[in-house]
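Lysozyme g
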Amino acid sequence: MGYGDIMQVEMSGASSKTSRQDKLEYDGVRASHTMAQTDARRMEKYKSFINNVAEKHDVDPAVIAAIISRASRAGNVIFNTNPPGWGDNYNGFGLMQVDKRYHEPRGAWNSEEHIDQATEILVNFIQLIQKKFPSWSTLCLTAGAIAAYNTGDSRVESYESVDSRTTGKDYSNDVVARAQWYKKNGF
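Structure:
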């Protein structure tokens, strides 16, 4: 990834609140890895889309897969909504939950076009976080951009509190840990 090696980012993984969604009796990196593995079979159907978009935007495909895992459980939690593809009280759309309040969703909820749009949003947040924190390393920028993808760049205040205003207060930590699992397992 042009924005740092996701395997070098140190994160704490999922909070107990996030891990309880899967009825796990543990949290942290182990929980994030378990949830990524749970989503792996569903993720396979999107692998070619993910790889195409990752190459286009110079983003690690494991990061895209991890956001898909966290945001929609590889489509599992939004498949049966009416209409399909909506989450977050019908504000988030698609596998990567593009927020309609800030972006006009493009493509079908499970399409390459959607993944492309969401990855463009992530790349934009990488650039915004880089401007906001020019002294941050590429590894910190990656974690900060993932947090900003969830909560907006104005709500990322420091690396030490990168997740203080994200969903579950663990979005970046969890996504990075999931991405590390996907990277180790073929994404």
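The mean pLDDT is 95.
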